# Entry
Amino acid sequence: MSSFDFENEHSDNVSELVALYEEAVKQNKSPFFDQEAYEHIIEYYEEKGNFENALEVADRSLLQYPYSSALLLKKAQVHFELKQLIISLELLEKAEIYDATELGIFLLRAEIYTFQSKYQDAIDILEHLLQTAERDDLPEVYLQMCDVYEDWEKYEEVYKSLLACLALEPGNEEALNRLNYCIEITDKYEETISLHKQLIDINPYNHLAWYNLACSYRGIDAYEKAINAFEYVLAINEDADFVYQDIAELHFKHGAFDKALAVIKEMCDSFEADDEIYFLQGKCHEALGDMKMARYCYRKAVHDNPSLSEAYFRIGETYKHEGLWEQAYKSFQKANELEKEQYDFCLAMAEAALEIGELEVAIDACETAIDIFVKRHEAYFILAKIMASNGDSVTAKEILKKGIEVCKSSIELRFAMCALSFMDHQTKEGELLLRELLTENNTLHELLYDFSEALRDNTQISLILADYI
# Structure
């Protein structure tokens, strides 16, 4: 059988290598590549998720290079991807016999142990590598340790491993990216500010260090410093379009809605906006009171992402703000269809349904909300209001009693109970409860009118309020 001899060809184009390999197989000829080429072909099939072909290439390559630890390692990696762990470990043992210095053998073995939740065994392997591996390989070992500790949910150890990696290689991009997430999990915002400043002193153009510094400042609510650091990221890396969103969200959080919109406009001049940007833009316009423009932005967001339930909810809120309850109801209905067990969506649906006379829908929405969060008061308040407005004060009182019993905050429901007393002409009981509530908190009296607008004309309530407000 003739063979294709490509041993001396080192094509940078992996697709070309694969094509040559497949042509040889198709012609029933024995392909012949150097080890590195075989590794690239195996990796190509792995990345495509074609593990059957990857194993076939590995087997063919090992016929040609039976003592290659690198190719045995590649085959072990494929078996690991297929979750054939015993085979993978056996191949690693064989590879170690041929080359006990191959770092990848021990890293993959640690990865397999991590998958098996044998965390200490994985750490023991990596600790040994820290003593024996070349200095240039140590960052990779520390990153593998991060994988183990992350899966183990030992985030303090993840943090220490990342610091050790960056001490060896201050510009390691994976470590810097992972550190940002780790800081968020461990709440080490303030502690890491000096670290990122040191990394910036080493390399002032390290945009990831600047980004992490900005996030750390944001974490301690140092608004201006965070904005400045984010702007440095953009000055260094003008392609970092995600930073515009960070800046805009920070402005939004601090009530600088016009600044947020200016940043979004600047971003849109250079990059294409996505649903998240349109949604944030809508929130800014809504906060500024421009409901029409807010709806326009929210609709652009759902055009890009039709499953964005929060955008439909916010469209409903803008209609609600304008008293357009029919339109609000339809938007809340869509939000609820997309996300059936979202507490705020259920409440909004109940309120809008009540306004347009869809009482059964309103009741169902309240009951769903109570099922989701039994200890939050809002759904009890609305449900009792529905019952009371339809003359069923007995059921309304039962609902309020249950809510007062179980909710974390019950003063709102006690105001509702007070309103119900006045509605039922139990004026003495209502007066005693109202005075008690106003002594406790004299800022929530509007809840009486939220429960029943007709109580605004109640002279007795007005006289009592005059004593406290």
Remarks:
- The radius of gyration is 32 Å.
